[in-house]
Design brief:
The complex is a heterodimer. By secondary structure, chain A is mainly α. Chain A contains six helices and no strands. Chain A has a single domain, classed as Four Helix Bundle (Hemerythrin (Met), subunit A), CATH 1.20.120.80. In chain A, helix 3 packs antiparallel against helix 4 and helix 3 packs antiparallel against helix 6. Chain A is elongated, with a radius of gyration of 23 Å. Chain B contains 17 helices and no strands. Classes of the chains: A mainly alpha, B mainly alpha.
């Protein structure tokens, strides 16, 4: 075909590529998670930078009891799997299964928050460690606190979904993607905990 | 040309109140974009007035227009305003307006989030400026923040910053920063998901590519600033010790966090300007952009390298020599992709049939001024040179050439180029040419002598200077450039108002351009395109106008 044969209406359609873009919700949530990663990066760097620089006690090794933290972490990591099970239930339109696994996810996440609260109570009441005591307190409460804040936001979202589903407002076709996006956020909160755990309870414990 | 109103119904039959209401509740990317640009230009005038006061103070030695404290407040508010309330919103506003039109979409991916972002930005700006009234706090001290736009600690600690001035600085920027982040998320989702059929990534207009890269940088840099500001708030309100040297906290740590944000921020402010130039120079040179793939590659490398250059703001801190050397090297490296862009623009103009409209004049002015600012930037990357001139007026001259001579000239070029699309009216060309020369003369008079006074040893951020040190002449010349710039701004504002009322009617495509925003009417209907366009090459409108010789044959 010579250029002269091409008319206004017949620009060859082989040059058109069918649109197979991902959903905008997925891109939006991925971008939010990307931004959140950099937010946490600042606090993680702050924690690492200030390890061992506190001018007074209490120091991490004097106050941290690793055993309850391990139970806590196990609960949070398990909740990542239960939310996957909930999504599977939703995809099969099995609302009973969906609600059961959602409830279990919320309970596990709630237990994590309870565990964090107990750890903080021990620090504050027994060891008199607050955010203004020393650099350990400053960086510890900021990092762990912001993570806990994100868990609470995730719990609010999950609870909202569970309540909506109990009221019969969750529809498989319309809402599967929305629930999946909340599960992405939940996985992100979980993944951040693994990094926070490594920073605070492994790297930070070294003498 | 006719001077009849373009939309007789919307101009006459709707009352003023309901027209304002329709803008306030709007989620249309075009209205939001114009509001971003409009509010940004309003803050530009406010920031400019603050600069005018500083130049009046520095007109002669031992002047007393401003108190030392007032001078500190002026340079803090001027810098903060120009970066966060002028540069970012104006550029994000252009992105908002143009991205959906350029990629053939009906709106942004998340229109309501888009409106939320705009109002967060406006609220953040008002919060920052409320400090003039509310910053005194309980102590009767303060007022507007006076800690510099990068707010180095320990100046920001409770001991040295009494009252709430610094808190307004933190919160105002944090809130408008949240707005910018929502906009960045919107840009990314829009560009990835909303392109019209046939609009592959390598057929996108370069402006869209540049805004895509800016989206990545915003999402990456602003959260770090927000994190640092949260730490500062904890220090100030909860007694934490992030930046408290008395408890082994590090003041340098704030500098690292701030500049890890701050240097990508510089590219957030200049990359959209590059994008505008990439659209404007080809159209007025009647040539395809030279080296499209190389431009994309250069953009992405600039974004990548910009993550690893921040210590060049901190050479005089006294960090280890090996660290300074690494960051000096990466700073030299970033000049390479930037230079590629420079040569590609010149390559586009070379042999072209150049039409020197006002828009093209500003674009050419951009090339000259930005080149100058870029070259002094490379000079400052040399560590010993920086040790000599850090925190002198040389640095002030350098970054004003980049941000005013670079970003703002590109914005003026873009205003003249896209104003007819947004309003249906052309801006006056003769008045525009006066604007251009006023700015070129004003810019050169104000900012060139700063290099000289800087080399002679004049420190920045000091409210006055002693006579007899050789600073008088250069400061006098610097201040004498201000009236030219004021005339330039007044001419531009007059031009905009006059052209809105009775400018020449533009028609859909006044510049004979090639990208999709010119394929719809001016101003575009609220759904942008009556029918979603298709795209067959990087110049879809050329293909439509020249079906006998479409671009897609040469891809």
């Amino acid at each position: 075909m010579t250029p002269q044969e091409i008319s206004m209406t017949s620009i060859p359609h082989t040059h058109l590529i069918p649109s197979s873009a991902p959903s905008r919700g997925k891109v939006g949530m991925a971008c939010l998670i990307f931004a959140e990663c950099w937010f946490f990066a600042g606090f993680i760097v702050a924690y690492l930078f200030y390890i061992g620089k506190s001018s007074s006690g209490p120091l991490p090794r004097e106050v941290i009891d690793i055993k309850p933290v391990l139970v806590n972490s196990a609960a949070l990591i398990a909740s990542s799997f239960t939310v996957i099970a909930a999504l599977r239930g939703l995809a099969r339109s099995n609302m009973g299964s969906f609600r059961f696994w959602m409830l279990l996810t919320i309970v596990l996440g709630g237990y994590f928050i309870y565990g964090t609260a107990m750890e903080w109570k021990g620090f504050i009441v027994d060891h008199h460690l607050t955010i203004s005591t020393n650099l350990f307190g400053t960086t510890y409460y900021s990092l762990v606190g912001f993570h806990a804040f994100h868990v609470i936001v995730g719990l609010c979202l999950l609870t909202a979904i569970l309540v909506l589903s109990l009221m019969g407002h969750i529809h498989v076709v319309r809402d599967h993607l929305r629930v999946e996006l909340v599960s992405w956020y939940w996985h992100f909160v979980d993944a951040v905990w693994i990094v926070v755990f490594t920073t605070v309870y492994i790297v930070g414990m070294r003498p | 040309m006719t001077t009849a109103p373009i939309h007789p119904t919307s101009e006459t039959s709707i009352g003023f109140g309901s027209r304002v209401h329709s803008w306030v509740i709007s989620v249309d990317h075009k209205k939001l974009g114009m509001m971003y640009i409009g509010v940004g230009l309003l803050f530009f005038v406010i920031g400019g007035l603050e600069a005018t006061l500083m130049r009046l103070q520095l007109l002669k030695p031992l002047n007393d227009v401003l108190t030392p404290h007032g001078f500190n407040q002026m340079f803090t508010m001027h810098g903060t305003t120009m970066v966060f309330l002028v540069g970012m919103p104006v550029l994000l506003g252009f992105g908002n307006y143009l991205i959906p039109l350029m990629i053939g979409a009906r709106d942004m991916a998340f229109p309501r989030l888009n409106a939320f972002g705009l109002w967060l930005f406006i609220f953040g700006g008002l919060l920052l400026y409320y400090s003039f009234i509310g910053g005194d706090g309980l102590y009767g001290m303060g007022g507007a923040p006076d800690v510099g736009w990068f707010a180095y600690s320990p100046l920001t600690s409770k001991a040295f910053s009494v009252g709430h001035a610094t808190d307004y600085w933190i919160l105002g920027i944090m809130v408008s920063g949240f707005g910018s982040m929502t906009t960045a998320i919107n840009f990314m989702a829009t560009i990835v998901c909303m392109r019209c059929p046939g609009m592959t990534f390598m057929r996108m207009p370069l402006f869209v590519w540049l805004m895509f890269t800016v989206g990545i940088l915003v999402l990456l840099a602003l959260p770090v600033l927000t994190g640092a500001q949260v730490m500062l708030l904890f220090d100030r309100f909860l007694g934490a010790h992030f930046f408290d040297p008395q408890q082994q906290g590090s003041v340098i740590f704030w500098q690292h966090l701030f500049w890890f944000f701050g240097h990508p921020e510089v590219y957030i402010l200049i990359l959209p300007a590059f994008g505008m130039i990439c659209e404007i120079i080809p159209v007025f040179s009647r040539k395809v952009i030279f080296g499209y793939p190389l431009m994309v590659a250069a953009t992405l490398s600039i974004a990548f390298i910009s993550l690893g250059v921040w210590v060049h703001h901190m050479f005089s801190v006294g960090l280890p020599p090996w660290l300074n050397s690494i960051f000096a090297a990466s700073t030299f490296l970033i000049a390479v992709p930037t230079g590629m862009k420079m040569f590609n623009w010149i390559g586009t103009m070379w042999g072209g049939n150049i039409r020197f409209t006002v828009s093209m004049m500003f674009a050419t002015g951009f090339l000259v001024m930005f080149l100058f600012g870029g070259l002094t930037g490379i000079m400052l990357a040399v560590v010993p040179f920086d040790w000599q001139l850090s925190d002198s007026y040389f640095v002030v001259g350098h970054f004003h050439y980049v941000l005013f001579g670079g970003t703002m000239l590109a914005v003026f070029s873009a205003v003249f180029y896209w104003f007819p699309k947004a309003t249906g009216r052309l801006l006056s060309e003769p008045m525009g040419k006066w604007t251009f020369w006023m700015f070129m003369i004003g810019l050169t008079l104000t900012f060139f002598p700063m290099h000289l006074s800087g080399v002679l040893g004049m420190p920045r951020r000091v409210y006055t200077y002693q006579p007899g040190r050789g600073f008088e002449l250069w400061n006098l010349i610097s201040s004498s450039g201000v009236p030219f710039q004021i005339v330039g701004v007044l001419l531009l504002v007059t031009n905009i108002i006059k052209s809105l009322i009775n400018g020449r009617v533009a028609g859909p495509d006044p510049w004979d351009a090639w990208t999709l925003e010119w394929a719809t009417s001016s101003p575009p209907p609220s759904e942008n395109f009556p029918k979603i366009p298709t795209c067959t090459s990087p110049r879809p409108l050329w293909d439509r106008k020249h079906p006998e010789d479409p671009d897609c044959f040469y891809e």
